Structure formats: structure tokens, C-alpha cells
Amino acid sequence: MQTMAGSEDQKFSLQEVLDTFKLCLSENKEVYLEQYVAGWRGLVKFLNSLGSVFGFISKDAVGKIQILVNYMNGENASHYATVQSMVKYEVDNNLVDVNKKGSHPESGCRTLLRLHRALRWLELFLDRLRTSTEDSKTSALCAEAYNESLAQHHPWMIRKAAGMAFLVLPGRQTFFEVMNVGPPEQVVAKLGEALPLISEVYQITEDLYAQHNMLDLP
Ligand SMILES: CCCCCCCC/C=C\CCCCCCCC(=O)N[C@@H](COP(=O)(O)O)[C@H](O)/C=C/CCCCCCCCCCCCC
């Protein structure tokens, strides 16, 4: 049965997402694509449990995850082990449309950039949840985080649709329950543990894209 927390096999667990983001970084701080994608899959499970209003967001995220998975399983799989190796391979082989869409509209680099921007939204949203109080509205926390991050890359129509979807987000208590961590104090502690990991993955990717002038890929 599909519930707010998802069906049994689809059950969201913040710990699981935390574990995948922990495994994302190699010793020399490269970002493993497999774990990055697994982290997003875990988050999409949560999104799917929120209902069909969020279907258009989930569909876009799943589509982008699938593009990356196809590269990771394709004939050039060895180049898609880490974000760093993917960037090097695609840049060295002119596989990225840099200024306008051309012959590589779905490069790994531009696809990952979309998820990377969403990771910033997640970081801001989770931080707001962590420091929220019992009467905080998740819709407001989510909208603030969105306006500070992803919204700056979205056209009016998408911003409008996202804003409407945020209005039906469940309350803070339900959110905390769905994370499957325990009482609110433990959720707050777990979020405190998750955030530095997410921030580090975000910052490493941001710096890499900045070095290659790829923060505005079409
Ligand atoms: C710890 C538990 C609480 C947090 C759980 C959060 C679960 C969130 C799961 C997934 C987030 C969705 C990621 C969305 C990626 C969007 C990528 C993007 O920007 N795509 C746009 C641009 O793509 P191209 O056209 O250039 O290919 C695309 O136009 C977007 C379409 C869909 C709208 C995206 C709105 C995003 C809103 C932010 C997420 C809100 C989720 C709320 C749930 C708490």
C-alpha cells in the first residue's frame, strides 16, 4: 500500500540517504557517480510518497538519474566512475555543449549540473528543517530554500508549479516521522550529521564546475 511513508520496499530512510552521501567521496575527494545517483534515488523515494502533485518534479529527477545511469553502464563506463573523470572525459572529447544546445544536449556534465543545483536546494531546506520550531511551516521553509537556489535557474512556469506543489507539503511533524530516525531530537541530530556531508559533496562539485567554467551549461 502507498502511504505517506511509501510502500514497504519503497520506504524512505534518512539514514540510508546519509550512508550513500557518506560513501560518495573517495579518499582523494572525488565524487563517486554511483553513490551520488543512489543518494538521489533515495530522495526520489521520499518525493514519490508525497503524492502525484510532485510527479512532475520526480519525473524530471528520474529522467536525469537515468541519463547518468545510461552513461555509467554504457560503452564508456570507465570514464563515468566519478564526477571528476566524467568532466575530464566529456571536456577532453568535446562532448559538452558549452554556450548553446547543440549536438550534446544531454551530456553527463549538463545533466549532473541540474542535480547539483538541486543539491544546494536540499542543503538549504534540510538546514531550515534542522533549525525549525514546532510551528514552522514546511511549505515556507521549502519555498525559501528554493527561491535562494534552484528558482534562479527555472523559468516562470516551473517556479509557479513548484510554488503550488510546496503548498501541499505535509507538516513538520509528519516530515520528521517519515525520515524514520526516531523522535524529533534524533532527527535534528541526524540532520546535523547529514548536512556537512551534503555540503562537502556540493562544494567539491561546485569548485570543479567553476574551474571548467561550466556553472551555466545550457
Ligand atoms: C530528508 C528528507 C527531506 C527532503 C527530501 C527531499 C526529496 C526531494 C527529492 C527530489 C528533489 C527533486 C530534484 C529536482 C531536480 C530538478 C532539476 C531541474 O532543475 N530541472 C529543471 C531543468 O532541467 P532542464 O529543462 O534544463 O533539463 C526542469 O525544468 C525541472 C522540472 C521540474 C521542476 C523542479 C522543481 C524543483 C523543486 C525543488 C524540489 C522540491 C521537492 C519538495 C519535496 C520536499
TrEMBL record:
Subcellular location: Cell membrane; Cytoplasm, Cytosol; Endosome membrane; Golgi apparatus, trans-Golgi network membrane
Protein's UniProt keywords contain Kinase: no
Annotated transmembrane regions: none
Glycolipid transfer protein domain location: 32-180
InterPro entries named among the record's database cross-references: GLTP_sf, Glycolipid_transfer_prot_dom
Membrane disposition: Peripheral membrane protein
GO BP term (any one): negative regulation of interleukin-1 beta production
Gene Ontology CC entries for this record: cytosol; endosome membrane; Golgi apparatus; nuclear outer membrane; plasma membrane
Keywords, ordered alphabetically: Cell membrane, Cytoplasm, Endosome, Golgi apparatus, Lipid transport, Lipid-binding, Membrane, Nucleus, Transport
Gene3D superfamilies hit by this protein: Glycolipid transfer protein
Tagged with keyword RNA-binding: no
Catalytic activity: N-(9Z-octadecenoyl)-sphing-4-enine-1-phosphate(in) = N-(9Z-octadecenoyl)-sphing-4-enine-1-phosphate(out); N-(hexadecanoyl)-sphing-4-enine-1-phosphate(in) = N-(hexadecanoyl)-sphing-4-enine-1-phosphate(out)
Similarity annotation: Belongs to the GLTP family.
PANTHER family: CERAMIDE-1-PHOSPHATE TRANSFER PROTEIN, GLYCOLIPID TRANSFER PROTEIN-RELATED
Protein name: Ceramide-1-phosphate transfer protein
The gene coding this protein: cptp
